[in-house]
Model the fold of this input.
Amino acid sequence: MTSPTSSHSLKSLLNPRSVAVIGASEDQTKFGGRLYKTLLQHHYDGAVYPINPTRDQLFGLKTYPSVTDTPQAPDMVVMALPRDKVKDEIAACAARGAKAGIIITSKFSDAGPEGLALEREVVATAAAHGMRLIGPNCLGLISPANKLVLCSSPAVNVPQLIEAPIGFISQSGALMGTLFDRSYGMGIGFSHCVSVGNQADLELNDFVEFLIEDERTQVICSYVEGIKTPQRFVELARRARAAGKPWLMVKAGATDDGRRAAYSHTASLAGDFAALKAICERENVVLMDDPLDMLSLARAMVRYPRRQVRNVAVFTTSGGGGAITADQLSRAGVGLSTFSDATMAALSEHYSEGQGANPIDVGGRKPDATSDIGAVTAELALADPGVDLGLMVLTTAPDVPGLTRQMADGADRPAAGGKPTLYVMLPGRVAAPAREFLVQRSLPYVDTLAEAMAVLRGWKAWLSYQEPAAPVRPADMAATPVPAAGTLGEAASKTLLGQAGIPVNIERLVRSADEAAEAAAELGFPLVLKVVSPDIAHKSDVGGVALNILDPDDLRRRLALMQASV
Done:
């Protein structure tokens, strides 16, 4: 980074008062054309300056030959120019007073030493004027919270952005666009999405810090190839945890092949995945394997903040589906609820004998069962105090949309307690109307059991986190002399451990049989006797350990044997 980054400065960057699009056009085959059109399409309410020296107007707005001709210095500039033109354009923008810029162009540090050198020159040029940069080699940003789209992906060609309290930071621009598109179809929205690319200046941690402090973000998602400032990453993980904001992450580079791919993509050093995994577990950053699973979990967390998911009731339209689901829940470490006697009795009024247990196969209802069996079943089971979540596993049973609606209505009844539900829509086209209904009701759903298990595992991991014990500060370590070389004796070693707050057993150092008897009278039996010598590292190998000494006579006898043999 060129200078310290504050949340306030990024707020201005993500909500600029004015934007200049360098290379703007009406040609939708070009980056500049797509960037310009989508910026206007989503009703950004700041000033827009299209930069194009060959046109007077573009989509009805006055154009400007260069950024130096705009009425005022733009807060933000965005450009997708040939690499050899970027440095001069950044110099002009920085001199004009632009506060920030997005560089879409690739082939900088991601393309070798020559590109890296040019990238550093570009950053230095901007920094000399206090200008901050996103990229290069990125796809820009999407901020539904601010109606700001500075992204050329076809994914943003939608009638209206969906705003939701999920922030997403990605080192891959194409992945950001793809996930935005998939999420949109599932009714998942965002507060802000940022593609950071090579992180030449502004980096992942800068935007994570912003999201931690952003009132319109509740869950933080990130796709990461390399972490530039690991210690800051740890500090931010603790801040996110203190703020009650889950941080979900997919990290590339878990394998040698993945590390090579990450480096070739954004020149990111992937680092030791095992070390990162340990840090994430310690700091409650939830590592996930699949980015779509990550966003599905984020949606569930937003819909049901801080609701437990330890024990699950399964509702299904297939006995086989219920059995498979029970197996997968067990493998995922998520419990299958045992219904109370009262719940079983209530369900038995609607289900044939043995059919009202968990998992519940709705197909096992009695012939004269109520027509709204889905609603009644969901209400009764979710009301059970041993149930944390309802997992609705739908198959191609008759009227999937109708049953889905019934289950949702039952889960909304007061007796159900507002407990979370997650729908698994296994069918394809048959379940399309049911998916549309779930999107309209903002209810979380996935399409496979594997996705459901990933969501539940991550959800449970975040909720089950226990704060690690605070480190104990050692007392004055100088009180125990430590030799410059050689083996530290057992007594001195245990003294050091005790000063560091590590529990050790009670012992006394003695030099004669009488001293041993006095110590035994104080400590009590049974006892262990050990030889202490700087020349003996492994006491038991030479007979220097006597166990289970039960009385004073036994102590004197075994001490004499040890003195004679060691």
